[in-house]
User: Fold this.
Amino acid sequence: MGNLEKVPSVISYSNPSPNQEQQWGRSISPNGITMVHTKLELDVHSTSEELDFILQSLDGMGNLHMQHIKSQGNSPAYTYKTPEQIVTDYLGKVFQHLEGAVGGWGLAFRQQTETDLVITIPTEWLASDRAMNSTYRALTAAGFNTEYFPRLKDVIFVTEPEAAAQYTARFVRSTRGFEFLREGSYFILCDAGGGTVDVVSYRVKKLYPSLELEQIGFPTARRCGSQFINFEFKKWLQKMIGENNYAAIDPNTVMGKITSHVTEGKAMRDLMTKFDNRKKRFTGLKDDVIRLEMPAPLEKLTIHGKVDEGDFVIPPCVNSLQFSF
Assistant:
């Protein structure tokens, strides 16, 4: 509950630098192109989104023009892999890290120990067999399977707010005591994540000897997490500095889209890291002005009244940003 640093759910198919970056999470080469927001691509909501995905895939692959394909050599700028395959590759990296971090889990230990796998998913995925199946296939293909866990017993899908509610209630009980949670009382949990925001209500059925919670009503979820704030910032920035300048730092942008492969290069990744850090400290007060610097090659950009030698300001008034949620 200390707002600890998270591992970004990103992977890069670019070659590492001489420093031998792992090309996932935070270990990305300086010039690597990262695949971001891929998890959200597992849940395509409509036929129009499906068609949108196909069209943008063709655009990224140069409409299958042979000259474009030849020019890419062995390392195409636009991966041919599906979202499920990209998620599998990412989880494979996580699995390798887990295997190295818990080296004491030898085969003999795993053969003797019953294991359950608990997978947390957005609430809205309960109505999406496609997203759940893709997640399950990606997880097992990445190594979380009976081959590695011979006594794998159950694979359990749990909604993210349900997992968060159980953890939060136990944390509150252990730090504030029983007087904060009372049997028969109710609480609402809002799990505001990167992609989705889930809200769910619970009643405390029992505190002792073990905590029991009863879900009240149905959880609700929308795709309006913090990633969409980042999308809106990018849209505002593009409008402020113009499409040509913006293309210099984000050449492969698909503005506001989640149904196609979303990528970030070094320049945009550096800028978004600064924005994300400052966003988390934003108070909403009138004097809380966010000042940022343009990354290369726009570090000396000057646009009268907007950008001064690469420095620009995000005003505190939301209306002035023309955000459109």
